[in-house]
């Protein structure tokens, strides 16, 4: 069973109720440089093709899991199942496919500091028109949007789900020229987080004669040099490369909401990878070197969004040109069709295989590079 939901996690879907889902994407995600439904560059598409064309290790297992996914989906539809039931089904699938070098965690809060930075307006309130023109879609939000402007009064903290949603006292200006209230991304809380096992990573580093390999990632995290485990409480997984955002129409949630949440989760996973490369080399890697993968392909992660039996697969990558976190669609399925369920299982298996091999090897290589810079005896 997943751990009890904290106050902050319970408010993840409601912390931005002042804005509609579409306005949150337009105003908040865009300010963080997050682009949903971005076009895939050829280099990213080629990398995806390589990952997904990896032949499955055990076709019989894939076939049995596809049948399970199809039959269980039909049962969940008949019972009007909610997010928890759909999450349990997908978690069972992941556990059956993953290797021991991969760990998954269910419904756990991620740390706020790994989220992308959101651009904040520095325009004084006195410069904002008193009666701004809203389009029809936002007219109904005019009243709630006013709560995003800080006045001289500070709202009661008990009315907010998380500290990040509370107006900052330092921005309350008595001169009457107060600034726009800080805009914040929702904290990620994927229904399923998938990353590298901390134990397996330590064993891999130890086999490469890295000093204190058992404690390397723990020390880096405790010293706040590198946050590789995204959990508010430790998840025992590092460098997440796949997240699931699960919704159910029977409980009033939808794919659009799942996309917004996976966009932040995927971007946060990219931030962890970027921090790793910055830590190891002091800068983003030089992709002009021969045979070096592009920055977009080095900072590659995936997400799955679902609404009941409808499922989307997304890739997340870093666009160095405009410094944006891009989220591009790979495919969409409906689990009630056997062929669709089978194709999804095959793609998921390929991504998990990539995570436990190519992705892991790149992470280990960077950690060894870091150790060689600070510990001469490391190799």
Automatic annotation (TrEMBL):
Q: Which InterPro entries match?
A: DUF7924 (IPR057684)
Bias (Polar residues): 118-129
One of the Pfam families matching this protein, by short name: DUF7924
Q: Where is this region: Disordered?
A: 1-22, 115-169
Q: Where is the DUF7924 domain?
A: 181-363
Top-rank taxon, per record: Eukaryota
Q: Which PANTHER family match?
A: VAST DOMAIN-CONTAINING PROTEIN
Question: Which protein is depicted?
Answer: DUF7924 domain-containing protein
Q: Which source organism does the UniProt entry give? A: Aspergillus flavus (strain ATCC 200026 / FGSC A1120 / IAM 13836 / NRRL 3357 / JCM 12722 / SRRC 167)
